[in-house]
Design brief:
Layout (H helix, E strand, L loop, with lengths): L10 E4 L6 E3 L5 E2 L1 H10 L2 E4 L5 H20 L11
Parallel strand pairs: 1-4
Antiparallel strand pairs: 2-3
């Protein structure tokens, strides 16, 4: 189980992946299961605009930060991550 910080951001930014968006012409059509997930946890979905590299970097940076954390920290199992 991952550590819980007790809070969730009100809005999450996503790239235009198929697990979030099923179509974008002319209106955005969200994946129904993901939309239910977002509603259940109470956050809104913010999408990156197509062909806008500066926006996608904000999404990719989170992945990089997690990867750097996992490479630099030493732990045996998930229990070591608990506060």
């Amino acid at each position: 189980m991952l550590p819980s910080f007790g809070r969730l951001a009100r809005a999450q930014r996503y790239d235009n992946c198929s697990s979030v968006v099923t179509a974008r012409d002319p209106q955005i059509k969200y994946n129904a299961q993901f939309l239910d997930f977002a509603r259940f946890y109470g956050f809104s979905i913010e999408l990156c605009n197509p062909n806008s590299g500066n926006e996608k970097g904000r999404v990719e940076r989170k992945i990089r930060d997690i990867r750097v954390f996992l490479e630099t920290e030493t732990f045996k199992d998930l229990n070591d991550l608990k506060p």
